[in-house]
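> call design_seq(struct)
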């Protein structure tokens, strides 16, 4: 068993995957996320400073949710995000749709087949999968 110290509270916990954060803190972050999501929906023109202050959340945390495409800002929002590749304005994530598509094209051009067309012979699913969190 892999035991780590929680990055947030310092408590020891059984580490499985992802960021080194204990289940209690993970839950607290999740609750915060719901609060921020609600706040952004109600205050469509809120600035990052307002969100950080009113929701008592770290800006870095908000930015992480945005990169994960969990948090989406409205057109009215003063918070502007830009594609990391071409600089086009975007509402969530890190890249614009065009660049996302371009990246996919690059992958297929490099000879990598898209998943799920034909399973490669001898490929095992067990163990190779990333651990994902399920509710
Ligand atoms: Zn913790
Ligand atoms: Zn782009």
């Amino acid at each position: 068993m892999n035991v780590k110290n929680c990055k947030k509270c310092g408590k020891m916990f059984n580490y499985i995957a992802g960021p080194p954060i204990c289940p209690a803190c993970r839950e607290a972050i999740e609750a915060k996320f719901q609060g921020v999501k609600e706040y952004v929906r109600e205050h469509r023109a809120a600035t990052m400073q307002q969100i950080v202050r009113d929701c008592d959340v770290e800006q870095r945390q908000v930015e992480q949710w945005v990169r994960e495409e969990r948090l989406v800002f409205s057109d009215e929002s003063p918070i502007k995000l830009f594609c990391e590749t071409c600089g086009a304005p975007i509402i969530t994530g890190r890249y614009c749709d065009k660049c996302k598509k371009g990246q996919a094209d690059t992958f297929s051009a490099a000879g990598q087949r898209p998943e799920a067309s034909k399973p490669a012979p001898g490929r095992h699913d067990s163990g190779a999968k990333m651990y994902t969190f399920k509710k």
